[in-house]
Design goal:
Layout lengths: L3 E10 H9 L4 E2 L6 E12 L2 E9 H5 L6 H12 L14 E7 L14 H13 L4 E5 L12 H18 L4 E5 L3 H8 L5 E4 L9 H7 L4 E4 L17 H18 L7 E4 L8 H9 L12 E2 L5 H7 L8 H13 L4 E4 L2 H15 L3
Parallel strand pairs: 5-6, 5-12, 6-7, 7-8, 8-9, 9-10, 11-12
Antiparallel strand pairs: 1-3, 2-3, 3-4
Helix pairs in contact: 5-6, 11-12
Length: 358
Amino acid sequence: MRKYYTRPCNFYYGNYAKNLINQRKAYSLAGRTDIAFDQIEIFTKKKKRIIKSKFLNISEIKRLDGKSALLIRNDLKKIITIRKKIKNLKFQKPQIMGVLNITPDSFSDGGLFCTVSKAKKQIKSMIDGGASIIDIGGESTRPGSKTLDEKEEWKRIESIVVKFKKNFPKIILSLDTRKSYVMRQGFSFDADIINDVSGLRFDKNSFSTIKSKKKPFILHHMKGAPATMQNNPTYDDVLLDIFDFFESKIKFCEKKGFSRNSIIIDPGIGFGKNLDHNLQLLSKISIFHSLGTPILIGVSRKRFIEHIVTKFDTSDRVGGTLAAVLYGLSQGVQLFRVHNVKEINQGILVFNKILNTN
């Protein structure tokens, strides 16, 4: 495992960012011209934990030497490289993934969209609200949930998936599943991308199934399994442990001939993390840019919001969700998985307009 880690920070936005990039006073983040940075934070790890961090400005970065220099420069190259589009999804502006749970027991919307007519109506509503991806799942992976039989899972979503591309040909169809059987069935009806919350660890055939069809996927982090993941989760250092997990998985995929450009990473907020873990990940989310992949966060209606707001909690938690989304947006996160698509899109559009007015 590596000893040094690189996080871009001190961001600028809009025309000011563009001017700094043109003057070589700042670096472009992921090839974007509307967000730039002129500092990096270097974490040094010893015995599996961060022992210190230091900030370097752009002139100091250029003068780097010693053992850390090559690694940090390689990280920097990944940070600034433009993210190639996946399907018709471009990452030069924030994108929204709409959540559709066709389950009786999901934590916030279980049972609401289990008929074809209700599901189709919800899909159209999310697309009209600004979603460019719809993520369809037939198995709840809420804390404490049990594994569902693969054929029952497919049966729940089959009617929607079969007709999805006929009804919504320009929208990316994502399957939220841990099972290669469901993946294969979905691919038969032109599913575009796989969102496996187990990080391809639940089913040994998942990776080969995805690779055989040359499909992109979301590499998600979850500690343990849904039934037990919130039973006192522990890490040596949550930020670095999850970074190491992603780096190891991406290298494995590349060795097997799978392109890094077909992977989106999701640190799995709420999946085997307590409040402190979630806050550490969100506050330092920009470290994951040095993996060279688009970043997705799923903060919608998550319980960590309740833990912060306590008596001010609401059923849809749209305020807390939006706050976390906008912070991620300011850190260059490209993709947001949410339930309240129109409300979150409204917040993104206004926030982005403010950021880019200068």
